[in-house]
Amino acid sequence: MSAEPDRSGAWVERDKIESGHLVDAVNVTKSFGSNVVLQGVDCHVDRGEVVCLLGPSGSGKTTFLRLINQMETLTGGRIYVDGELVGFTERGGRLHARRPKDIARQRARIGMVFQRFNLFPHMTALENVTVAPRTVAGVDAATARREAMELLDRVGLADRAGYYPNELSGGQQQRVAIARALAMKPDLMLFDEPTSALDPELVGEVLGAMRALADQGMTMIVVTHEMGFAREVADRVIFMDGGAVVEDGPPEQVLGNPRHERTRAFIARVR
Ligand code: ADP
């Protein structure tokens, strides 16, 4: 599908595919030194789909998200976003790098929300949301401000626009981080355990903002241990273990009637 032999018989990568999916991962491998973290991950995500990525700690979930967003380089295999090859890949046995300009363009289409809120501490909530549109996308100040206020309103924080991160609760900071990621109008949102650093009473407000985003049709890949969220919001659940996809299907199947013992054991542990 994604590679074909050229006239000399050597396999060449194709930069574009027409799979119809927003994300295609094909036989993705990743090693850190001798530590093989991903060993042949195949999966896809459709436009508008919410996919929850579950699995024990160390199973490679974060690494997979970071590969999609080109924060790590692939060891092997390919990832396509909207049919376009992203990141580094092997071609004829050699690492082939994309140009920085292409990486920046591709990254701008993906929003990422981390476990820790990663807001700029010296900027207000509003400034955190306007900074990328202003400096990366060249949006004028008035437009950036208006759009940022709309986003802060969407996450329920219009009245906190002038607050600095240290004046906000963890849940509020994480909602600002979501608004900030949305400011670049991404096609895809990646969430890496967005609630696991929060006090339990603050988890609901962040999941609520994510649920609203899902309802509005955003394509989302969410690494989470929040089973309720996965059950109620995900269109599909992917269970990973040991750097491989063990199970991939609708939540009622993967969570309600898992086929694999490893999935069953994991669900029993985190429930
Ligand atoms: P998960 O998100 O499922 O907990 P991770 O993707 O964070 O799993 O980690 C998978 C494995 O990759 C772990 O063994 C971790 O130590 C290793 N790893 C992740 N990032 C790095 C890195 N930058 N350098 C070396 N090893 C890493």
Automatic annotation (TrEMBL):
Coiled-coil positions: none
Protein's UniProt name: ABC-type polar-amino-acid transporter
Lineage of producing organism: Bacteria, Bacillati, Actinomycetota, Actinomycetes, Propionibacteriales
Highest taxon of the lineage: Bacteria
UniProt family annotation: Belongs to the ABC transporter superfamily.
Lipid bilayer topology: Peripheral membrane protein
Main location: membrane
Source species of the chain: Naumannella cuiyingiana
Cleavable signal peptide: none
Domain ABC transporter per the UniProt entry, residue ranges: 23-267
Span covered, complete protein: 1 to 271 of 329
Catalysed reaction, written as an equation: a polar amino acid(out) + ATP + H2O = a polar amino acid(in) + ADP + phosphate + H(+)
Gene Ontology terms: cellular component: plasma membrane
Enzyme class: translocase
GO molecular function terms listed in the Swiss-Prot or TrEMBL record: ATP binding; ATP hydrolysis activity; ATPase-coupled polar amino acid-transporter activity
EC numbers: 7.4.2.1
Record keywords, A-Z: ATP-binding, Cell membrane, Membrane, Nucleotide-binding, Transport
Subcellular location: Cell membrane
